[in-house]
Amino acid sequence: MRSMAEVDATDARLLLALTEDPRASVMALSQRLGLARNTVQTRLARLETNGVLAPLDQRVRPEALGYRLGAYMSVQVAQRGLAEVSDALAGLPEVVEVTGLSGATDLLVHVVAIDADHLWRVTEAVLAIPGVQRVDTALAMRRFVDRRVTPLLQRIADPSATG
Fold first, then answer.
1. Which has the closest alpha carbon to 14: 37, 1, 100?
2. What confidence tens digit (pLDDT) does each residue in 103-151 have?
3. Which CATH number is 9-56's, of 3.40.50.970, 1.10.10.10, 1.20.200.10, 1.10.510.10?
4. I need a surface site. Which of 11, 122, 141, 156 has the fewest CB within 10 A?
5. What's this model's pTM, rounded to 2 decimal places?
């Protein structure tokens, strides 16, 4: 993960307002937060440039695209092969996220598939990548907590609040 700028209390308030109303205009945000329009526009541009705001495609749920089956693959990689394997994984459309881990497993790969047969083909494609030594797959049965940062933003926006 690349280095990114810290988020201050004003940034956190701005991000919380965007979380509540993602389509809010710069003017509406400035009025709501009591900030100058230029201040809001400058901060939003900095947050985008510095990678604080994730790309829009991360908001699209794979299920809406027909990929209703999710799985996590624990992938063991030959020593010094992480970069090549990661690049190859990025070339598979069904791979939605790859995270490097410490311990016996080198990579945690989140994949999506249309059905079990499709997942089998995705698994075969991962196993065919040079440097991949072993893959263990676990089906995602149910998501209990979606990825979220709102509680963290609230803590930064108002450090005096408990939580």
1. 37
2. 999 999 999 999 999 999 999 999 999 999 999 999 999 999 988 999 9
3. 1.10.10.10
4. 141
5. 0.82
